[in-house]
Amino acid sequence: MQRRDFIQISTLSVAGLLAIRPDCKGTPPLKGIAIIDPAGVAGSNQGSSYPSEATAGAAVMLRESGLSFEVVNQTAHFSSYKVLILPDSVLFSPIFTKKIETYLQQGGAMLASWRSGLTPDGAQFATPAFGIQRVGEAPYSPDFIDTRNSEIGQNLASSELVMYLRGIEVRPSNATVLAPTLPPVVGTDHYPAVTENGKVIYFMHPIFTQYHRSAPRWCRRLVLNALDRLAPDVAASKTGGIHPGIVS
Fold first, then answer.
1. For 179-192, how does the pLDDT look when each residue is reduced to its tens digit (9 = 90+)?
2. I need a labelling partner for 28 at 20 to 30 A (CA). Which of 146, 170, 183, 220 fits?
3. With 0-12 CB in 10 A as exposed, 13-18 as middle and 19+ as buried, what is 13?
């Protein structure tokens, strides 16, 4: 067993144990963040793979940052959590869409990435809550997230951060672009990398799968910055983890 696989399994096991036996840590775990595993959502086509690469990446990312979380499926009571993370491949059936919309209407917050939020056929976003439209596959890969003068670039070097895995090009309808994507070809148009619409933040790249495969620190920092925008009290609850200094 490789070290990273061991960490993933250990992380998810500890998260589940704390959900059942909060006395294991002395105090009940904060019901702050839930990661919705794609394998636990009907129509996401993840088969029996549990956890998915994206879920494992999200779990390791949060654990390294000292944040409490639980891994859940579509049957969970979402109202128990302040923030839902939908990593990379959580497709939205009509029933699941309605459940998510109800959760958001009740004041919840959501961080989603890549194909999460699309209809099962991948053609479009299932709910206007994202405030964006799918254009198609990103025209370039790799490409770069531009954090210069970005609203989500805190504690990151003012730079262009490479994203190795191909994303989805989106067009904002109501959403605000927090950071653009820069193509590797000079003179070509950029497209949104990170968008925000109310309490919904979306990353166009499979950021959690990328973290699982190569663990670039800027991916973790970007996610923490997004969580801080969505639920500052949850992001501030860290029990340890990364130093808040500049990540390059």
1. 999 999 887 789 99
2. 220
3. exposed
Q: What angle do CA 88, 93, 95 make, to 5 degrees?
A: 125
- Tell me how many domains the chain contains: 1
pLDDT in tens, 115-168: 999 999 999 999 999 999 999 999 999 999 999 888 899 999 888 999 999 999
Q: What pLDDT does 208 receive?
A: 98
- The residue range of the domain holding 224 is 3-135+168-180+192-235
Specify if 240 maps to a domain: no
- Measure CA 32 to chain center: 14
Dihedral through CA 208, CA 210, CA 213, CA 219, nearest 10?
-80
Report helix, strand or coil for 147. coil
Q: How many CB atoms neighbour CB 202 within 10 A?
A: 29
Q: Which long-range contacts does 229-235 make (Cβ < 8 Å, 24+ apart)?
A: 229/152, 229/196, 229/201, 230/83, 230/109, 230/110, 230/111, 230/199, 230/201, 231/32, 231/82, 231/83, 231/109, 233/32, 233/82, 234/30, 234/32, 234/33, 234/67, 234/82, 234/83, 235/67
**Tokens representing residue 198 in the block:** 């109310």
pLDDT at residue 10, rounded to an integer: 53
pTM score of the predicted model: 0.84
The enclosing domain of 55 has a CATH number of: 3.40.50.880
